[in-house]
Amino acid sequence: MAEYTPRYVGTVTKYVFVDSPEMTPSDLALRAYEISRGVMIKETCFGLQITGKEEEVDAIIGQLRSLDPAHIFVKDRGFPPGDPRRCRANLGGARPGYYGHEFELTLIKYVSKGLEELPSRPADSVPKPAAPKSGKRLDVHKLKKIIDSQES
Amino acid sequence: MAKVFIYPATSLILSDLVARFGHTPLSAAMQIRERVQTAGLESPPLQITPEDPKKGLKYAAVEVPSGVRGRMSLFGPMIEDADAAIIVNDADFSFGCMGCARTNELIAFLIRKKGIPVLDLVYPRTEEEGVEFVAAIRVFLTGLEGA
């Protein structure tokens, strides 16, 4: 086992996803570069990755969010950008973890709609969301009876 | 500001909404970041070292596959730390291998056993469901204030 020396210690990396009819990832990147003040910004096909000290990254994200609040989404990332263990330049194909983002980005327009609509609706006019399906499962005692009946 | 465990722990939508409504999302990225930024011996791809499955013993027995225990060393401390949880129940993309599937079941069990406030949802499939989804999360998170 080789010794491991981490890079970018003490920094945070955050993804900024944009799914807007009025703003592209490159528009967002330009705005981000304008206010970056030395924080590392990487433009991607879906938005940006921002790496730096937590308070600096949060300040930039706060300003970027205000451009299109209902269509800009942010989440933490564990790895820094370009990390050879994760970067698709080294691995080939979509990087692990992207499939989750890909799936959620197909639904994110509904969340954007919710964020846009919600402030204009009275609280009591929003129906409750559908409860998750709770299919009836096989009772453990019944299962034991089935096993016993097969063994005897 | 409450610490809210999100499931799937890598969810962009949940992570964003929890932070947007003023709370701290507990997501997998934070645990991975901690490991990736700690010096030691190289253990690619996630810097999960042989120590992690040992830490996972707190949550799963020794005969449980080490993959489950390794994963629980990431998620277990976050569940312990959580004040509330939001679970999306139809996240098929998080099913993965048997290690992932069993870990997912164990996570759901531990959250319910802990007795913290839990919001159960499914992903929205229409615009109206999107409004209901966001409204449910907002009401749930507003109710946590001061937690």
Q: Which CATH top level class of chain A fits?
A: Alpha Beta
Round the Cα radius of gyration of chain B to an integer and report it.
16 Å
Number of helices of chain B: 6
Strand order of the largest sheet of chain B: 2-1-4-5
- What is the percent of helical residues of chain A? 25-40%
Helix tally of chain A equals 5
- What is the CATH C-level name of chain B? Alpha Beta
The name of the CATH topology of chain A is: Alpha-Beta Plaits
Q: Could you please describe the fold and organization of this structure?
A:
- The complex is a heterodimer of chains A (152) and B (147).
- Chain A has one domain: Alpha-Beta Plaits, CATH 3.30.70.
- By secondary structure, chain A is of the alpha+beta class.
- Chain A has 5 helices and 5 strands.
- In chain A, strands 3-4-2-5 form a 4-stranded antiparallel β-sheet, covered by helices on one side.
- The radius of gyration of chain A is 23 Å and the shape is flat.
- In chain A, 39% of the residues lie in helices and 16% in strands.
- Chain A has helices at residues 25-35, 54-65, 88-91, 98-117, 140-151; strands at 3-4, 12-18, 40-43, 47-52, 72-77.
- With 147 residues, chain B is of the alpha/beta class.
- Chain B has one domain: Rossmann fold (3-Layer(aba) Sandwich), CATH 3.40.50.
- Chain B is 49% helix and 13% strand.
- Chain B contains 6 helices and 5 strands; from the N terminus they run βαβαβααβαβα.
- In chain B, strand 1, helix 1 (12-20) and strand 2 form a beta-alpha-beta unit.
- In chain B, helix 4 (66-81) runs parallel beside helix 5 (98-114).
- Chain B is globular.
- At the A-B interface, strand 1, strand 2, strand 5 and helix 4 of A face helix 1, helix 2, strand 3 and helix 6 of B.
